[in-house]
Amino acid sequence: QVQLVESGGGLVQAGGSLRLSCAASGRTFSNYVMGWFRQAPGKERDFVAAMSWSGHSTQYADSVKGRFTISRDNAKNTVYLQMNSLKPEDTAVYYCAASSSYIGSDSHMYNRWGQGTQVTVSS
Question: What is the pLDDT of residue 30?
Answer without folding.
Answer: 79
